[in-house]
Amino acid sequence: MTPRTTDWWRHAAIYQVYPRSFADGNGDGIGDLVGVRSRLDYLQRLGIEAIWFSPWYLTPMADAGYDVTDFRQIDPRFGTLAEAEKLITEAHERGIRIIVDVVPNHVSNEHAWFTAALNAAPGSPERDLFWFREGRGENGELPPNEWQSIFGGSAWTRVPDGQWYLHLFAPEQPDLNWRNPLVRAEYEDILRFWFDRGVDGIRVDSAAMCSKDPALPDYDHSVFPDPHPYVDLDENHDIYRGWRAVADSYAEPRALIGEVWLADAARFAQYLRADELHSAFNFDFLGCSWDAAALRAVIDQTLAAHAGVGAPSTWVLSNHDVTRHVTRYGRPDTSTAAGIRQYNPVVDEDLGRRRARAAALLTMALPGAVYIYQGEELGLPEVEDIPADRRDDPIYHRTNGEDPGRDGCRVPLPWNGTKEPYGFSPAGAASPWLPQPAAWAQLSAAAQDTDPHSMLSLYRQVLARRAAEPALGDGPMQWLDSVPNVLAFTRGENFTCIVNLSDTPVQLPDHAQILVSSQPLSQAVLPIDTSVWLRTTA
User: Fold this and answer.
1) Of 303, 414, 434, 458, which sits most exposed with the smallest number of CB within 10 A?
2) Which H or E run includes 133?
3) Do 507 and 524 touch, CB atoms closer than 8 A?
4) What is the DSSP code (8-state) at residue 154?
5) Which residue, among 56, 20, 25, 58, has the nearest Cα to 40 in the 3D structure?
6) CA 53 → CA 57, 72, 84, 362, distances in Å?
7) What's the predicted TM-score (pTM) here?
8) pLDDT tens profile 248-279
9) Cβ neighbours of residue 389 closer than 8 Å, sequence gap 6 or more
10) Nearest to 247 by CA among 207, 209, 309, 203
11) 94: how many CB neighbours lie within 10 A of its CB?
12) Distances (CA, A) of 113 to 107, 116, 129, 130
């Protein structure tokens, strides 16, 4: 597989690996790097061009590895640094690039810096690396302000000497003080550490949250304040200019890809200026309902925002934090706003899978890069009946179970066989860290491998066609006139994508060839909830 340009992030099909749940090589019920290496041929055959790894670093695993103790060590549950280096080499031999996750907002409470801060006095240089403050109240018994953790409860935890420290996520994830130059220097060195080992890109977790207003002002939590005291502060941009200088210092520039959750398209685009991040995830598209007008509006807004700064768009349907889209598309309300995490909602899984197939063709025909979350190519649904004693997500525990958390999209993949662990682990291994449904036997990679109508076969076909079509990936698109609730657009001179989101079949236009369709077609009619790629007549 040969990349089409050195600016691979502008067009690549990128596959997200959540290491704990991809493949278990040593039999402990937890995915690892040996397991990933054993499946590189599968990923090559699938047709992906890069792998993004969720954190694989040393961690107590208080938040699925996003609580990092040491960015320069691989967690023993996943393997060793030598195995990571071998994986990078073996992936490159297959033409697959590697992206690793870096978490700048916080570290683990077991990180050496935080341990030193706890052992140091208030006002010390060690504590200045974090956000330690005195409490309110007569004896400092109240938190410094009323900020709430994204995972539920207060964003502050008190230490034995009476001070409090800030954690916008779990208490085990203390926030770093990016006003301290040591923090900036450390992270730039972390980037060099991985770039020197051949990593091609960095995915930046919670990229818009690093900086905080030093006054730590309270705000009305019922509305999104403008300006916000810790989301999208202008100081963030200086951080990423420093990171971009590091990335650009290599003979083949490395990519910086941001997780930027912002409603304001203009503010979002500022992170993608020529001297900052190369690209960012498109959460508006991920959360959009299965509705033609809504999808077209999001696509137009996305392309316009990116065009203003010359950055490529990205398209994603699922990831490790949201309900899998096979399930979401089968609900009465198909947006993530309504369906991100629910207990046993009404789901038409057949409808959801049909729409997911159609969405795959839409997504991969749009200009820019596309991200595929592991198991998406198998059509895996959300697992919503995980027993309480098996749930792992801190969101579930910090909300006392009111929020089921994100475990349902993180269940280990089924590779083969008729019962758990479905080839995720070798024979005789420990049970997977999260339980796999009995119905997943029919969804395993092996079960779908030779079925020409399976989701896996569809993804292989679409990715191969996408790589072969010069007009796909980065570049322009043009909307075509169409009947209501049908999306139709061209890429290049003779490629057309049509998506039928209406409640009736529609007639296809004149065409020279059907390249691929999400459902079987007959008599040049496009069924409901179906997409098609056409070679149009000259």
Assistant:
1) 303
2) strand 132-133
3) yes
4) B
5) 25
6) 11, 15, 11, 25
7) 0.95
8) 999 998 999 999 988 888 999 999 999 999 99
9) none
10) 203
11) 13
12) 9, 5, 8, 9
DSSP 314: E
> The tokens of 358 are what?
């159609």
**Backbone torsions φ then ψ of 203, nearest 5 degrees:** -95, 125
369-406: burial string, b at 16+ Cβ within 10 Å, e else:
bbbbbbbbbbbbbbbbebeeeebbbbbbbbbeeebbbb
Cβ distance 167 to 230 under 8 Å? no
* Burial call 523-536: b when 16+ CB within 10 Å, e when fewer: eeebbbbbbbbbeb
Which helix (H) or strand (E) element contains residue 158?
strand 156-158
CA atoms of 220 and 286, how far apart (whole Å): 27
Alpha helices for 120-209 (secondary structure H): 181-195
- Asked whether 168 and 106 are in contact (CB, 8 A), the reply is yes
Q: Tell me: the pLDDT tens digits for 167-200?
A: 999 999 999 999 999 999 999 999 999 999 999 9
d(CA 276, CA 360) in angstroms, rounded, equals 30
**Helix H or strand E encompassing 176:** none
Residue 227: cis peptide before it, omega within 30 degrees of 0: yes
Position 1 scores a pLDDT of 36
CB half-sphere exposure, 93, CA atoms < 13 A: 9
User: Helices in 288-400 by DSSP H: which ranges?
Assistant: 292-307, 325-328, 336-339, 349-365, 394-398
Burial of residue 214, with CB atoms counted within 10 A of its CB: 0-12 exposed, 13-18 middle, 19 or more buried:
exposed
73-97: average pLDDT:
98
Question: The tokens 């598309």 sit on which residue?
Answer: 329
C-alpha–C-alpha distance, residues 361 and 372, integer Å: 12
H/E element, 219: none
Query: Distances in Å between the alpha carbon of 67 and those of 11, 93, 207, 468?
Result: 31, 31, 15, 40
Q: Which one, of 44, 196, 185, lies nearest residue 104 by Cα?
A: 185
Residue 385 carries which side chain, given as an amino acid letter?
D
Nearest alpha-carbon partner for 426 in 37, 23, 22, 84: 23
Structure tokens at 529: 């909830």
Nearest-angstrom CA–CA distance, 296 and 57: 39
- Number of Cβ within 10 Å of residue 306's Cβ equals 22
Which residue(s) pair with 533 in the sheet? 497, 516
Tell me the two tokens of residue 404.
Answer: 């089921």
Q: Which residues pair with 158 in a beta bridge?
A: 164
Nearest to residue 340, comparing CAs of 350, 325, 352, 330?
Answer: 325
What whole-number distance in Å separates Cα of residue 121 and Cα of residue 68?
Answer: 24
**Alpha-carbon distance 236 to 232, whole Å?**
7
Is the pLDDT assigned to residue 339 strictly greater than 60?
no
Query: And the tokens for 272?
Result: 């993608």
CA 87 – CA 37 distance, rounded (Å): 6
Q: Which two tokens stand for residue 455?
A: 């989701």
Which single residue is written with the structure tokens 């899998």? 324
The mean per-residue pLDDT over the stretch 286-294 comes to: 95
Interacting residues of 86 by C-beta distance below 8 A, sequence separation 6+ = 37
